[in-house]
Amino acid sequence: MYWPGAKNAVTGKGANKEMELCYTEEKKFSREDVQGLFLSVGWISGEYPARLYRALMNSSAVFTVWDGSRLVGLLRAMDDGELVAFLHYLLVRPDYQGRGIAGRLVALAKEKYKDYLYINIMPEESKNAAFYEKHGFRRMEDGVAMQICNFAGRE
User: Which SS3 state, helix, strand or coil, does residue 35 take?
Assistant: First the structure.
């Protein structure tokens, strides 16, 4: 899917202007595009550009946001095709944060998966939980996040 012409208000300098961003579900990004985005927010995944690119290409859905030819935001989803979708990797370049981009990406994913029984998110930092609650997610009453972290050698 492709959503051209989505408007986002610019905050800060030039706040009276509007920028036109392109939201898409097309996997038209390059390895360099995603590496730059991930490194811009300090995520270690950006240090593994070939693996990151392959992981995104093999994901069920990747929603991206473009300002011209610059990748400025991304949300990845993994699903089982029927019941459960997991949202993972929601990130926006620091100089584009605070403009509603992340919220719009979540809204697009919620629309895509509206007929699934569950849409799950596991924020890696508890400080981000309020953002997801604002977008309709609820904390699991007795849930606990668990992980095995394998940092084997680089590519």
Answer: helix
